[in-house]
Amino acid sequence: MQYRTIDIKTINQEGIGGLSFFEAEKDIPFPIKRIYYITDVPMGIKRGFHAHKELKQLLFCPYGKICITLDDGINREDIILDAPSKGIVIESPLWREMLWLEENSVLCVAASDYYSEQDYIRDYDEFIEFQKAKEIAQ
Ligand code: TYD
For residue 7, which of 64, 94, 86, 69 has the smallest C-alpha distance? Predict the structure, then answer.
């Protein structure tokens, strides 16, 4: 499966909390053009259900607990984001589903490009076809 979990640098200071940070093209392998975050999702709700053709992303959860399911068309893996220091770097097309496991959990994304609906694959069968076509082209 083509993703990496990364350890986001986090400084925990006694009694005054934690501070996490990453730098584009140093800690993550691409320039950042867009940041977005998803809030106020009730526990038990799933979002996502899409893949991106070109977009590269770092996913992280600074607060709460979210299960990220990644699928390359053959295998599926679940990754739990439950600490500000945990991140997932996705650099190739993977189908993703995100399940909110705790109330008020926040999902943040640093992305390599501006929003473009053309970059989305929102149909799972279409994603499978996209992956097959990619394999044949290689
Ligand atoms: P979407 O990526 O489909 O969210 P999720 O997969 O979590 O359900 O985005 C939801 C809506 O927000 C969709 O109509 C597109 C819009 N959107 C933007 O306009 N700009 C953005 O940067 C993003 C991420 C989404």
Answer: 86
**Alpha carbon nearest to ligand 1 atom 16, residue:** 115
Tokens of 37: 């975050």
| Two tokens, residue 134 | 């990619």
**Is the CB of 47 within 6 Å of ligand 1?**
yes
Rounded to two decimals, the pTM is 0.96
Active site residue 50: yes
Q: Where are the beta strands (DSSP E) in 8-130?
A: 9-13, 17-21, 34-38, 46-52, 57-63, 66-71, 76-81, 86-90, 95-100, 106-111, 120-121
Give the pLDDT confidence of 36-90 residue by residue, as tens digits. Answer: 999 999 999 999 999 999 999 999 999 999 999 999 999 999 999 999 999 999 9
Confirm or reject: Cβ of 38 under 6 Å from ligand 1.
Answer: yes
